[in-house]
């Protein structure tokens, strides 16, 4: 590219601005501190940020500290200058009350960092569940050239010759513990076996899902999402990612060129085929809103529900992250979907080529792990979007409904997709844990379990608690799952057929706030509805009584951020973003320099 054709670098406003020489001198002398020379800073080389999510508090992403060295080498090799900086840590399982609270905080911090400092492009180091959407959301808002690098999954876990997968083994271990098949030490040992190396969860949980979708959106180098963290290919990929971002700056290839409606529809289709997490609709809605793409929740059913499950990873299947990579990863899945016309092939990706061109020739290397389109593991693997008098919108992954579950709840020949039963209502996860094994609750195999007070306001950030195990006495009788419905989220590592992300939540006075234990509820998957069988007048009376008492009660905030987020956060069906933040779009272009 000739010098004239190159876009003017925004970092020049800091380091090479003759109109403001005193400020330029101030910026320059500080950035010399860690060893860059005046010549380098004034050379006109693109300055690339490395948004570092790895730290001791974020062990899932910690390997990015090592990978950043290779990213830097790639950046330098391509003629750029690398400046690495920390992102607010988010660790899915360790953060209290929930890591969901931190996605929007990391987003805010990163927007300020990449907008307010002398950067021309940024490498987004993704991995653990919320880190990936937080970084993509911020890149969308600022709209500087950006490329994501996944840290990659852990190696496969093994225990007594069998694969043990992150998170999924916890759900299984809990059942074994409840049945007395394991003691506490045995339980811990079993769970620890699932985490044999650096990297993120090796199951198709939210981490593998969101990194696969970052690639399907076109924001990551093709074939890179699935590379396990410790593999040498991962280091090589870090180097190529560093090289590529410099070229992206020269080409002025921005998130808004890549994150189009076509890209989001590709991600929805891929999510069904990989058996992706029920957290994906929340995060994709958030990214879409920050880039200004209209992506209603109903698109998930319209575009994604009929797509079959091709990837045989736990929790829906048998295998784990290493197997997914060896079988061909995202490109092999995309190629299968392309063969059916399900992929919008012209969607542009970070390497400057289209999704179609990147994936057309990708082949499946192991058909046990990635199935050909005509031999799927399951049909209709996407989500149903449900509504009714208890909520306006919720999602359900129907493909995880087991035959036993279907028979128990959905076998009425007159109405094979509907079920009616009494409700038991829990107010938040603590209430559930205290009471679940109390026989006085009278939970039977016909009960529907409700979890409320677990949405973005009620349990700040929305807790992953809707998939509730039945009481131990029912598990002993062979009832391993009851229908679960709630305004919280569910871990992507859980295979429960729950109805999730119900919006508006109880704390926002959605219909769930009015439900009482003992009410009869009808769930009708055929009609896409969940309703409490109570006349409208009585619901209105209950609502008036609750409003008179000050609304649905939820615990006080414990930190300033909890209070701030609660005052501005939206509901899960529209991405649970900070309402108002979406009006700041493409600020690198629309707001000029800070
Ligand atoms: Fe971090 Fe699963 S807990 S990736
Ligand atoms: Mg999670």
From TrEMBL:
UniProt GO MF annotations: lyase activity
Alphabetical list of SUPFAM superfamilies matching this protein: IlvD/EDD N-terminal domain-like, LeuD/IlvD-like
Residue ranges annotated for the Dihydroxy-acid/6-phosphogluconate dehydratase C-terminal domain, each copy included: 368-576
InterPro entries: Dihydro-acid_dehy_C (IPR042096), DiOHA_6PGluconate_deHydtase_CS (IPR020558), ILV_EDD_C (IPR056740), ILV_EDD_N (IPR000581), IlvD/EDD_N (IPR037237), Sugar_Degrad_Dehydratases (IPR052352)
One family name in Pfam for this protein: ILV_EDD_C
Iron found in the keyword field: yes
Domain Dihydroxy-acid/6-phosphogluconate dehydratase N-terminal, first and last residues per copy: 45-358
Keyword terms: Iron, Iron-sulfur, Lyase, Metal-binding
Keyword Iron-sulfur attached: yes
EC primary class: lyase
Top-rank taxon, per record: Bacteria
EC number(s) given by UniProt: 4.2.1.-
Stored PANTHER family: HYPOTHETICAL DIHYDROXY-ACID DEHYDRATASE (EUROFUNG)-RELATED, HYPOTHETICAL DIHYDROXYACID DEHYDRATASE (EUROFUNG)-RELATED
Family: Belongs to the IlvD/Edd family.
Protein name: IlvD/Edd family dehydratase
Originating species: Novosphingobium anseongense
């Amino acid at each position: 590219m000739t010098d004239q054709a190159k876009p003017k670098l925004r970092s020049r406003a800091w380091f090479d601005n003759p109109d403001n020489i005193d400020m330029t001198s101030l910026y320059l002398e500080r950035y010399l501190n860690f060893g860059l020379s005046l010549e380098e800073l004034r050379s006109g080389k693109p300055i690339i940020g490395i948004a570092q999510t790895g730290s001791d508090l974020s062990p899932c992403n910690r390997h990015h500290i090592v990978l950043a060295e290779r990213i830097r080498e790639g950046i330098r090799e391509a003629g750029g200058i690398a400046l690495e900086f920390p992102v607010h840590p988010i660790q899915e399982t360790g953060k209290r009350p929930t890591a969901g609270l931190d996605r929007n905080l990391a987003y805010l911090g990163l927007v300020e960092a990449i907008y307010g400092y002398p950067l021309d492009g940024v490498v987004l180091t993704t991995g653990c569940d919320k880190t990936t959407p937080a970084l993509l959301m911020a890149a969308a808002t600022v709209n500087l050239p950006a490329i994501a690098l996944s840290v990659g999954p852990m190696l496969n876990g093994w225990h007594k010759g069998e694969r043990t997968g992150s998170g999924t083994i916890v759900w299984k271990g809990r059942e074994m513990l409840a049945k007395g098949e394991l003691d506490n030490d045995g339980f811990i040992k079993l769970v620890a076996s699932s985490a044999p190396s650096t990297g993120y969860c090796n199951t198709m949980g939210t981490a593998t899902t969101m990194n696969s979708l970052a690639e399907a959106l076109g924001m990551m180098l093709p074939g890179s999402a699935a590379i396990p963290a410790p593999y040498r290919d991962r280091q090589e990929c870090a180097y190529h990612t560093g090289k590529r971002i410099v070229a992206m700056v020269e080409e002025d290839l921005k998130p808004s060129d890549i994150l189009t409606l076509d890209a989001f529809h590709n991600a929805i289709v891929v999510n069904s085929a990989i058996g992706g997490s029920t957290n994906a609709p929340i995060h994709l809605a958030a990214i879409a809103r920050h880039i200004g793409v209209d992506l209603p929740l109903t698109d998930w059913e319209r575009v994604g529900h009929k797509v079959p499950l091709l990837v045989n990873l736990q929790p829906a299947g048998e295998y784990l992250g290493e197997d997914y990579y060896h079988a061909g990863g995202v490109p092999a899945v995309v190629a299968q979907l392309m063969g059916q016309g399900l992929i919008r092939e012209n969607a542009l990706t970070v390497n400057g080529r289209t999704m179609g061109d990147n994936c057309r020739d990708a082949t499946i290397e192991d058909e046990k792990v990635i199935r050909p389109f005509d031999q799927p593991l399951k049909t209709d693997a996407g989500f149903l979007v449900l509504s009714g008098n208890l909520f306006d919108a919720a999602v359900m992954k129907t493909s995880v409904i087991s035959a036993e579950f279907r028979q128990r709840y959905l076998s009425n020949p007159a109405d094979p997709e509907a079920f009616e039963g009494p409700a038991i209502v829990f107010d938040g996860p603590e209430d559930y844990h205290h009471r679940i094994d109390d026989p006085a609750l009278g939970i039977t195999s016909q009960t529907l379990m409700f979890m409320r007070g677990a949405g973005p306001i009620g349990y700040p950030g929305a807790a992953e608690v809707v998939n509730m195990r039945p009481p131990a006495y029912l598990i002993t009788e062979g009832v391993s799952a009851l229908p679960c419905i709630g305004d919280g989220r569910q871990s992507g590592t859980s295979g429960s057929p729950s109805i999730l992300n119900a919006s508006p939540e109880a704390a926002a006075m959605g219909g769930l706030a009015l439900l009482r234990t003992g009410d009869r509820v009808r769930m009708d998957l055929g009609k896409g509805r969940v309703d409490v069988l109570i006349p409208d007048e009585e619901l209105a009376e209950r609502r008036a009584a609750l409003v008179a008492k000050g609304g649905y009660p939820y615990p006080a905030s414990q930190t300033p951020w909890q209070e701030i987020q609660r005052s501005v956060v939206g509901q899960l069906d529209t991405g649970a973003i900070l309402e108002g933040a979406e009006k700041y779009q493409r600020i690198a272009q629309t707001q000029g320099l800070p």
